[in-house]
Amino acid sequence: MSNPKKTPAKRIQCLSLKMVREKPSILYPQRKISSPREAAELFRQFIGDSDREVFCIMTLDTKNQPTALHEVSRGTLNASLVHPRETFKLAIMANAASIIACHNHPSGLPDPSREDVELTERIRDAGSLMGIELLDHLVLGENRFASMKERGLM
Fold first, then answer.
1. Domain boundaries, the chain
2. Which of 33, 34, 98, 153 maximizes the CB count within 10 A of its CB?
């Protein structure tokens, strides 16, 4: 079945593209994100009970169907270094129409910090330039979450 003319790198690329398409359907069989709660539940499965801040994005197609979940950054107990460049590199590779960002607060309190709001604005503005809309930025706490869009912070 394998093509002897394909280099190992090309075989790996094809495999990774296939995994990006199949993984979300396993994690989220409904296939459409229609509320912040649905997105938060999916991110909670992906991040788990990490004792460090983890910043992730969900890439979505034009029908708000998840195409991939990506960990952008893993930080310390109370901080994670995130840059729009790395965030959108993953979104472009996944051919995303839009993204939802999410990170956890290991403290358990999902209230967005000033730094969280500033990061959201930078990601939103960078996405606007590239035509990839930031739909929401969620902050996960213990058994709760905060949607920056619902709170009017973006």
1. 8-147
2. 33
Q: What's the confidence (pLDDT) of residue 28?
A: 56
Rounded distance, CA 139 to CA 145, Å?
Answer: 5
For the segment(s) 8-147, the CATH number from 3.30.43.10, 3.40.140.10, 3.40.309.10, 3.90.226.10 is 3.40.140.10
Residue 124: Cβ-neighbour burial (10 angstroms; 0-12, 13-18, 19+): middle
The Cα 93–Cα 99 span in angstroms is: 12
Structure tokens at 75: 């930080």
Per-residue pLDDT of 127-146, as tens digits, reads 999 999 999 999 999 989 99
How many C-beta neighbours within 10 Å does residue 120 have? 20
Confidence (pTM): 0.78
